[in-house]
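PROTOCOL LOG
Step 1. Enter all chains and additional molecules of the complex.
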Amino acid sequence: MKVFFTILICRLLRFVGKLIGKGSSFPGQVALKLCPDILSRVQLPAYIIAVTGSNGKTSTVEMIAHILQKNGKRVAWNREGSNQIEGVTTLVLGSSTLGGKVKCDILLIESDERFARYTFRYIKPTHYVITNLYRDQLTRNGHPEWVYDALADSICDGTQLILNADDPLVSCFGQGREDVIWFGADKLSSDTDTLQSAYNDGAYCPVCKKPMTYSTYHYNHIGHYQCTSCGYRRQDTAYTITAVDLDRGEMEIDGKYRISLALKSLYNIYNILAAYTVARIVGIDGAEIAADMSDYVLKNGRVITFTLGNRHGTLLTSKHENSVSYDQSLRVASAFKEGCDVLIIVDAISRKYFTGDVSWLWDIDFEMLNCDNVHQIVLAGTYVNDLALRFEYTGIPAEKIRCFADINEAADYLGNDRTEYIYAITCFSDKGKLLARVKED
Ligand SMILES: [Zn+2]
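Step 2. Run joint prediction.
Step 3. Record the structure below.
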């Protein structure tokens, strides 16, 4: 009876919440108050796939859901991205009968990396994807090794780990475990022999802390690494990006499946690879997955094309306090051969808490914008002076840079008669301020 009433109340609250446009974590919060172990009392499907990591969780989960649904699977997943235990509870109870049976073939859970240990106390994933661990939200998460420890507590016996082999810290989760599937990229034409990043989180072995060497870098500290002391090295991969042509917008997986890319970024190809890996494990044919992923445009609003005055542009949602996500967006802009202007907004650092910490600006490789493809750079928002100071160290000629504390003034300025494409790079917390001023395509 307790299960019945808890599910009923959760679903009623969810229904009302949807009507009034409320978030999806409150119904789960109430359910957990009524019955703290409700998640262990429901009957779960055979596949429980969890996805976590610093970056790419939401996009990867969306892609997995897309492929599985296209291939006839019934998938319950947290499309709102409410990824702490309350949101996951809402998802699970919202997808179950009043008797407590979850009505799907696959439960697909995006999980916050710090809170995964609470969620997976009750729900044990059958498959657990870890995408990457980067410097992310310093004021909340500290450093990546701290997050590593928190995540390690969330891994249960009997769960198959699906790990990014090219991330040295993520790969540590596979140490001493039998049931691990590795995904990653071969040496690619876009790789570099030396590190291209403002800092090096791959300098030291995460196992023994001695220096590491790389035979190739895909981006930042993601690549083919080997410890000079203890033998820790990148693992061979079961599912592999075998070629990428970002100019043409194509990738190849496992030497035979070609996928054309709606978003030409290395980030995107890793998310696609992670989704491909999961779908293959579930039993979907590789050619089907490639067809489903070709030209797939994410629906999660991370990439939005727009018109401002007579000009066209793309908003690349990045994450404040997360330099790798900025680096990826900057790479897209700096590779735009037709020539572009770049707008960067730092106005509210977080949506969820107040912080005035801007140390992460110094981790971002803004030097990438010091190239012929980038014509003008517009900096905007409350932290424009911190941005301007950072840009003084990039070597970019001062006449290329304009600064506006007011985002509306920056938009007015950009809505001019120039013909260059605009790349706008900012965070969830600030993107609405730009979108209010442009026409979304
Ligand atoms: Zn080592």
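Step 4. Note key features.
The longest strand covers residues 212-219.
The CA atoms of residues 198 and 363 lie 5 Å apart.
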